[in-house]
């Protein structure tokens, strides 16, 4: 398991389960497409005098279970000649080579960075040098160091009229560069975030904890996932619903089932990435062509999973729909 991790700080802060939660769910026996050995994310490794680089955004690295974290900016400061794109940030003099920097043993990607060219270059340096970016190897090692990624959305919606590039776009760039340079496929030790089952399992766990804190004794049977992205929000909710249904089938056969929820209903809103088809739409209306697949390559195209249980105009209407389906009175 990796002990010293290169972490790319995201421009937008993600939600991510901690190490103990990851290990506990792995012990329950569930799996997720693209998740790999997710328990490795939470390993609390490292002994002796290894230097632990300080996270630039506080204690989030330690909260995930890592004790030896170095960021891209810290790696760049240690090896300034690696980042040569920005002329303003190039070193004025040639620095002395370093041989005292501990080897990096894995790469953790949580969200799209601010300086893409810097992160792409330094991540490639780490992968091609087997974690020793100050050196050069005759050939690229393969399999490469473990790469763990969260949040694979290709696009997300901000204030602009059209969607913005998400972390999935950054991963796509990294995958394309790695294949072009090495002729091989970039492999992930684990993929989390929507639409991974891991993320929905984490969300269910948080809901269960909040219910317990409020003293709600009745088990949560129905989950509702509201989102604006068919490929991540709807796909993930439907994938988790399928997972819950398989769990119910196992319970009927007498197999132990750790989950209490019975269904996960996907509700798609029209205020973000998704836009309902209409006049002037850029959607695939001509010739019956299928829309482009915006999901990550390791999840694969499954059109049925991208069809929402309900499509509503906004979150307010989604909440009203949930109240109606549960038979709750609206004040």
TrEMBL record:
<dbReference type="InterPro" id="IPR036412">
    <property type="entry name" value="HAD-like_sf"/>
</dbReference>
<dbReference type="InterPro" id="IPR006357">
    <property type="entry name" value="HAD-SF_hydro_IIA"/>
</dbReference>
<dbReference type="GO" id="GO:0046474">
    <property type="term" value="P:glycerophospholipid biosynthetic process"/>
</dbReference>
<dbReference type="InterPro" id="IPR050324">
    <property type="entry name" value="CDP-alcohol_PTase-I"/>
</dbReference>
<keyword id="KW-0732">Signal</keyword>
<feature type="compositionally biased region" description="Basic and acidic residues">
    <location>
        <begin position="18"/>
        <end position="29"/>
    </location>
</feature>
<feature type="compositionally biased region" description="Gly residues">
    <location>
        <begin position="37"/>
        <end position="48"/>
    </location>
</feature>
<feature type="region of interest" description="Disordered">
    <location>
        <begin position="1"/>
        <end position="59"/>
    </location>
</feature>
<dbReference type="GO" id="GO:0005739">
    <property type="term" value="C:mitochondrion"/>
</dbReference>
<protein>
    <recommendedName>
        <fullName>Haloacid dehalogenase-like hydrolase domain-containing 5</fullName>
    </recommendedName>
</protein>
<dbReference type="InterPro" id="IPR023214">
    <property type="entry name" value="HAD_sf"/>
</dbReference>
<dbReference type="InterPro" id="IPR006353">
    <property type="entry name" value="HAD-SF_hydro_IIA_CECR5"/>
</dbReference>
<comment type="similarity">
    <text>Belongs to the HAD-like hydrolase superfamily.</text>
</comment>
